Amino acid sequence: MKEFILGLPKVELHLHIEGSLEPELLFKIAERNQIDIPYDSPEALRQAYQFEDLQSFLDIYYQGAHALHTEQDFYDLTWAYLERCKLDNVIHTEIFFDPQTHTDRGIAFDTVINGIYNALLDGEKSFGISSNIIACFLRHLSQESAIETLESILKHQDKITGVGLDSSEAGNPPEKFKYAFQLAKQAGLKTVAHAGEEGPAQNIIDAIDMLKVSRVDHGVRCVEDEDLVKQLINNKMALTVCPLSNIKLRVFNDMSQHNIVDLLRRGVTVTINSDDPAYFGGYMTDNFMAVNQSHKMTKSELTQLTINAIEASFISEELKDKYR
Ligand code: ADE
Ligand code: ZN
């Protein structure tokens, strides 16, 4: 089955580019930007990646992202991720970035988006990997800050397909960003949101009803509301599930407890994604392998995960036809 999973074409819909910053590249970038890292080696830093919950991860993740300063840094980060995509037979990826993590410390929005976008263009040329960019609002910040960020996003709408919502879910429900999402929608952007990762099923309902999302990031706590699961099935609402992330952040105790295969067998449009692979110990193939090891899936079920991701992606109908 390993050969089958490796060769299976994959589509990634939930990847934070800042979360793909491997310790080795972090050290290299920090050195050229003359930033001190309080660890002796990349390996020592990797050893420190032990998390109790989402917040304990986010604290370390934002620290790591602060090493990124120049357009070249964002290019190198994105390029390294694309090289991993090539190894994993990822044919299309929709990547998140967190503009406020950078603009709030004085890095220009243009620096960030240009570095990421140019690497993605080169990834398409060199590897044939198609891509879209989704800019996420940090939900621990205010709606005013999100709207200010939206103004920058709209200046780069030729490069950005949609907006998302990430960071600390507890205490920051979808409702807080209703107006910002309404403005984004009116401007023609797609919308997605993290919901039902650590927060309750109600956040999934509110992301769908109030933020008009096209898909839900994580969404695994939908099982706490049977009517919601039925609605997800009937409306073919996709969940971008991140199995290794969920184990690392203790959303589930271990992979055998994870509900992704149950949801797939019930007809929910679930997909497999890597979230923050540099922090959670695995890219796309690793996530597929880990789920299959605990749940013994058929080839047809594994293929369905890719079909689900193609259907839930923001690629054009023509390109979907090519990938189907
Ligand atoms: N930002 C990066 N990874 C995240 C996750 N898994 N949940 C919420 N915000 C994030
Ligand atoms: Zn995420």
From TrEMBL:
Cofactor: Zn(2+)
Primary role: Catalyzes the hydrolytic deamination of adenine to hypoxanthine. Plays an important role in the purine salvage pathway and in nitrogen catabolism.
Cited Pfam families: A_deaminase
UniProt-annotated site: Important for catalytic activity, residues: H218
Binding-site residues for substrate, renumbered to this chain: D276
Broad enzyme group: hydrolase
GO BP annotations listed: adenine catabolic process; hypoxanthine salvage; nucleotide metabolic process
Gene3D superfamilies (UniProt xref): Metal-dependent hydrolases
Keywords for this protein: Hydrolase, Metal-binding, Nucleotide metabolism, Zinc
UniProt protein name: Adenine deaminase
Active site: E197 (proton donor)
EC id: 3.5.4.2
Record: residues binding Zn(2+): H14, H16, H194, D275
Parts of the chain that traverse the membrane: none
Catalytic activity: adenine + H2O + H(+) = hypoxanthine + NH4(+)
Manner of cofactor binding, per the entry note: Binds 1 zinc ion per subunit.
Signal peptide bounds: none
GO molecular function, one term: adenine deaminase activity
GO cellular component: cytosol
